[in-house]
From TrEMBL:
Origin species: Parapedobacter defluvii
Cytochrome c domain sequence ranges: 590-675
Protein name, as recorded: Carbohydrate-binding protein
Signal peptide range in chain numbering: none
SUPFAM superfamilies xref list: Cytochrome c, Galactose-binding domain-like, PKD domain, Soluble quinoprotein glucose dehydrogenase
Length: 859
């Protein structure tokens, strides 16, 4: 039986990484990983700290850099680590080398070169660079095709024109005499260099071939694994964006998961997916001719330096494009980057405390960089694909880039994060543990403040922690700046500026432990921003205005109120205001919140951001290019839905065929709004509240003020903000925040109301400003004994500022007995929790009346 999600716990070990690539799990569960720009970092399990070990000088243009790391099979004896990186300097070469790693130090002087591969550094893309050993001690290295992938006109890169050699994949991946676009298999020698193991694709000495080749015909074989039992190799190959169609009519923009039972040719750039054939595009004439024969492909390019006749092409095991796949429906749609992870065998983890359920025995794990999922793939008795199913689908992963099992059965996962070619706050090293029987507690930390000047006293609470096993007794321990505390709450004073990790461990009475951590930033205080007004801060009225005055201060900076970003607008759907108030959306585009949210929910963030360069243009750049052009809205809608290329270089944009045209229009309008000139609000003024329409009760006005400081004492810049949110003064009674009444819904009348009101019943609305409120109206139904509505401030027994008698019986002439009654309100200032308490001490247990809505009047 498939285990439920409550048996897994996920712990973030490190975050804010700079393009993590591959990791190696060392003895004691220390994790060493490499970052593309050259960083080598070590997570120490015993101390829970992340250390910088080394920094390679690398060429990190296009997709090159420090890409791979793996430990020698005899690491505990020889302490050898292997690295694959693009060597810095003018010589375009990528190097596989070996170094010793002792006492948490990488001994760079011990570097021994194993293999060097000449490359080109003019055009992007595809470097791969993953490393793995098999159980026989053979080392595998994946290499990308290293070919110009951005000038293909929607076809495959087979440009045979003179001077276009770097745009011809027939010179690399389809070339038996080139090491790019391959998975290589070699046997490293102790003195350096390597031997060729028996059984590679081409026997040593075969004319026009390289004996290192195990797999050829790969485009970007980014992640792969080797089945320790069968010896099969599984690799994910990241696919192209093409306008050519397969035999079933689907665009051949396939990513692949391949099963390699023996060395072979896997089709690129002539075939893809289930050996679907690409037509041969002639870049000189612009004509599309017939494709190759998968059973006997011929590489007839003038740029080919290897064999003319290639091995028969092998089809993929799993393939999928940008649309929903009819063959593999679980994979989803949109952008894609397929990865092959490890095959799990229970017998390899006999005494491991965190080994997975036997349910996953013999299953292959595959994962998706763009779509953020992990799948478990099952095979039939012959080893062929049988089915796939989601794994850990209660979590969303942020661009998983490496997945490995530790000896204790835990899963370690590297997440690259949101933006390409940049350091990401959500780039993480995480550990996932599975527990059968007793489940681990879930640790959760709440702090009263995360930022502040030194000394900073922080109150810590574990109140959000829980245990899925009923009856377990929990204990709590804290580690903060080297000090230990016990109990569900604790307090710690940080005396010096710095960034501190606070760790909570929650233990149950059966030995289960769950951990969580949070960061405290000491040395920079968030700026104070306030919007002052004499108007009401909760409601708007027809024909009214909102006066405002902004104040701002910061302990570390000198602040001018002119530097505070102000935004004001009317939001037709009031619940959308939460997107702005959460800080996740652009406060200056209040009219386009739906478009912002759609962009955030789709795969767009994998290639674009508002103002930071990634593999695609920024939204601001798009807005500037298309500003004021006729028909641009429909043009961009079509591009979002259908995909395309050519406007920002040749890198193709993924289609989104499942997206409704109306949703695409919302996205386009938001993007184009980023190029509009906006009138800057002065720090003091008066705003007319005239954008709502008669009968509109859902919309809200939002005035937002936000200021970002300069950072201080090594702490990054912090935001200070305030806002005024004004809603319609008619409030549905059933929308109360708390109460002890019932709600009735009448579908025929399209209404809901509060009923079951008895003596002592109440409804509560939190944080309501009564400034300038002179009366409150109630749409009430005299359906019982009648009674008094008392409005108390801040508690049931708080001061009474309004009373209204609602008589018993029916109101004559009112449909169904409903009628508005109005009571006066004593003047009060500031926001309060409003308790509407219903009183009739003589009614016993009888119902008093029902209420449909309340209305706050300023007259």
């Amino acid at each position: 039986m498939k285990p439920d999600s409550s048996h897994y716990t996920r712990t973030v070990l490190a975050e804010g990484l700079d393009e993590p690539m591959e990791m190696v799990i060392l003895p004691g569960n220390d994790v060493l990983f490499v970052e593309r720009k050259g960083g080598v970092r070590l997570y120490k399990d015993a101390t829970k700290e992340l250390r910088a070990v080394a920094n390679f000088e690398v060429f990190s243009g296009i997709e090159d850099g420090l890409l791979g790391v793996v430990a020698d099979p005899d690491y505990e004896k020889n302490h050898w680590l292997y690295f694959y990186y693009a060597v810095a300097g003018e010589k375009a070469v990528s190097r596989l080398s070996r170094m010793e790693f002792r006492n948490d130090s990488l001994l760079r002087s011990t570097e021994t070169i194993i293999l060097e591969i000449p490359t080109q550094r003019i055009y992007c893309c595809h470097s791969a660079g993953y490393l793995k050993f098999d159980k026989a001690g053979n080392l595998y290295l994946s290499t990308g095709d290293n070919t110009n992938a951005e000038e293909t006109n929607g076809y495959t890169p087979v440009d045979e024109r003179p001077g276009r050699e770097l745009s011809d994949d027939q010179a690399t991946t389809a070339n038996t005499n080139d090491l790019r676009g391959k998975i290589l298999r070699i046997k490293p020698l102790p003195e350096g260099g390597y031997a060729i193991p028996e059984g590679n694709l081409f026997p040593k000495g075969t004319a026009g071939t390289r004996p290192e080749i195990y797999v050829m015909g790969a485009r970007n074989p980014y992640r792969y694994s080797i089945d320790a039992e069968t010896g099969y190799l599984y690799f994910g190959d990241v696919g192209p964006d093409t306008k050519l169609k397969a035999s079933d009519g689907e665009l051949m923009s396939f990513d692949e998961i391949n099963q390699v039972r023996k060395p072979g040719y896997y089709g690129w750039p002539y075939f893809l997916g289930n050996n679907e054939v690409f037509g041969k595009y002639d870049y000189a004439t612009g004509e599309l001719g017939p494709g190759k024969d998968p059973s006997k492909p011929l590489n007839e390019s003038p740029n080919n330096t290897g064999m003319r006749e290639l091995p028969p092409a092998r089809p993929a095991m799993i393939w999928y494009g940008k649309n929903n796949s009819k063959y593999f429906p679980l994979v989803g749609n949109g952008g894609a980057s397929a990865m092959a992870g490890p095959v799990y065998y229970s017998k390899h983890f006999k005494n491991a405390p965190y080994k997975l359920s036997d349910y996953y025995d013999g299953k292959l794990f595959i994962y998706e960089w763009i779509r953020g999922w992990i799948m478990a793939v099952s095979f039939d008795e012959a080893g062929n694909f049988k089915e796939m199913e989601p794994f850990l689908d209660h979590w969303k992963f942020d661009a998983p880039v490496d997945m490995q099992f530790a000896s204790d059965g835990a899963i370690y996962l590297l997440e690259y994060g949101t933006n390409w070619f940049s350091k990401n706050t959500n780039a993480r090293l995480i550990r996932i543990e599975y527990a059968e029987g007793n489940r681990k507690p879930v640790a959760s930390i709440t702090v009263d403040k995360q930022y502040g000047a030194a000394p900073l006293t922080v109150s810590l609470s574990a109140s959000g922690s829980m245990d899925h096993d009923e009856g377990d007794k929990l204990s709590f321990s804290w580690l903060a700046d080297g000090d230990n505390y016990e109990g569900a709450t604790a307090s710690h004073t940080f005396t010096k500026p710095g960034i501190y990790d606070v760790e909570l461990t929650v233990s149950d009475n059966h030995g289960g432990k769950g951990t969580s951590s949070t960061r405290i930033y000491v040395g920079n205080t968030p700026p104070e921003v306030h919007i002052r007004t004499t108007s009401n801060r909760s409601f708007y009225w027809d024909g009214s205005t909102l006066d405002y005055r902004v104040e701002a201060s910061d302990n570390e900076d000198s602040v001018s109120v002119g530097d505070v970003a102000l935004a004001f607008g009317y939001i037709p759907h009031g619940k959308d205001a939460a997107l702005v108030l959460s800080g996740g959306q652009d406060p200056n585009s209040l009219r386009y919140l739906k478009g912002q949210q759609l962009i955030a929910d789709l795969d767009c963030k994998s290639c674009h951001s508002i103002d930071k360069e990634s593999v695609g243009p920024t939204y601001q750049a798009v807005a500037v290019r298309y500003a004021g052009k006729p028909g641009v809205e429909n043009l961009l809608i079509d591009k979002i839905i259908k995909g395309g290329s050519g406007n920002w270089g040749e890198r193709a944009m993924s289609p989104h065929p499942e997206l409704a045209e109306g949703d695409a229009r919302e996205m386009v309008r938001y993007i184009l709004s980023l190029g509009q000139q906006r009138q800057k609000l002065p720090p003091e003024g008066r705003l007319l509240l005239d954008a709502h329409r008669d009968g509109d009760t859902d919309g809200v006005y939002l005035l937002s003020a936000r200021y970002t400081d300069q950072g201080a004492n090594g702490i990054p810049p912090l935001n200070g903000h305030d806002h005024i949110l004004l809603r319609n003064p008619l409030v549905q009674a059933e929308d109360f925040d708390a109460g002890n009444v019932s709600i009735a819904t009448v579908t025929t009348a399209f209404m809901s109301y509060v009923y079951g009101i008895r003596n002592g019943s109440y409804i509560l609305f939190r944080g309501v400003d009564l400034a300038h409120v002179r009366h409150i109206g109630y749409r009430a139904q005299a359906s019982g004994a009648g009674g008094t509505v008392e409005l108390h401030l801040d508690s049931i027994g708080g001061p009474v500022v309004s009373r209204l008698e609602i008589p018993a019986g029916n109101f004559s002439g009112a449909e169904s007995g409903w009628k508005e009654m109005v009571g006066s309100v004593d003047e009060s200032q500031g926001k309060h929790d409003l308790y509407f308490v219903f009183v009739n001490g003589e009614a016993g247990d009888k119902a008093l009346f029902s209420i449909d809505w309340l209305k706050f009047y300023n007259r």
